[in-house]
Amino acid sequence: MPSKPADLPVSPALPGLLAGKDLAARLLQWQVPLTDDAGAGKKKGKARKMAEFDPGAKPFSSGDKAGDKEAVEALALELDGLQNLFYADRRFKLLVILQGTDTSGKDGTLRGVFSRMSPLGVHTAAWKAPNEDERARDYLWRIHQKVPASGEIMIFNRSHYEDVLVPPVNGWITPAQCGQRYRQINDFERMLSENGTVILKFMLHISFEEQRSRLQERIDDVSKHWKFAMGDLEARKQWKPYQQAYENLLNATSTPWAPWHVVPADSKTHRNLMIALRVRQALQQLGLRYPPEDLALEGIKVV
To answer: What's the confidence (pLDDT) of residue 44?
Structure first.
C-alpha cells in the first residue's frame, strides 16, 4: 500500500495569515478570471485590465522588509523539503511559468525562490527567439520537449507565451491567428494537466518607471552590461502595445487547469514572497507521500 501523505511542518518564521483560507483568498484577488472549460476564451468572470493590477502593491508583505526577506528564506527551505518529497513521490510534474517584460525579475525569482532546491529534480529553460530549425516547425514543438518528467520541477524563464506577445505586437500574425494560438495553448496545457502536470503561471508585473530604473542600473553598472541589449530600449518604446498584448493573453489563457496570477513586482522581495507562497500552497495541496515501504529491507543490518 502507498504511504500516507507526509506531515510537513510550517516554519515558525511565517505568520499564520500567510497560510490556509486567508492565503487562498488573497491569492484569488491576483488571479485572472478563468475562461470556460471548453478553452474557447469565453470568460466565467469579468475580464481584468492590466491597469487594475498595481505593480507597486505588496499584498503579502508584513510591512517589514527585513522580516519579509526572512520569510522568503524560510519558504525557500520549506520548498526544498517539499521538492525532495515531490521527487520521491513521482506521481506529478510541476511546470512553473515566469513571464514579464524586460527587468521584471525572472532571473531574480529563480535565485530567490528555487535556489535551495536540489538540482537533481529542478530544471530551468530560458526561451529566446526561435532558431531556424525551430521556426520550421510549429511554435509549440520546442516547448513540448522541455516539459517536466514525473517528479521533476521545470521552470520556464519566458515561455510559449512569447508567441502571443512578440508576433501580434509587431504585426507578424493577425488577431485571428493570435486567437487561434490562444486556443491551441489552452488545449496544450490541458493535455499536460490531464497527464499529471501541475501548471503555475506568473506574470511579473512592474511599472514603466521601475523598468526605466532597472535598465539604467544595467547601463551604469559595468558588471551588469551583459544583461543589457539595445533591443531592450526598442521594446520599451512599445510598452503600451505589450501591456495590451499581456492583457489579451492573460484573459484568454487563464484556465481552470492553468490559471494566471499577476504578481506585483516593483518590490523584488515581495515578488519572491508571493511566488514562494503560491508554489508552497500548490505542493501542499497534492497530498505528497513517500513510496511504499520496501519489505525486502526489513531486518537488514548494515555492518
So the answer is: 67
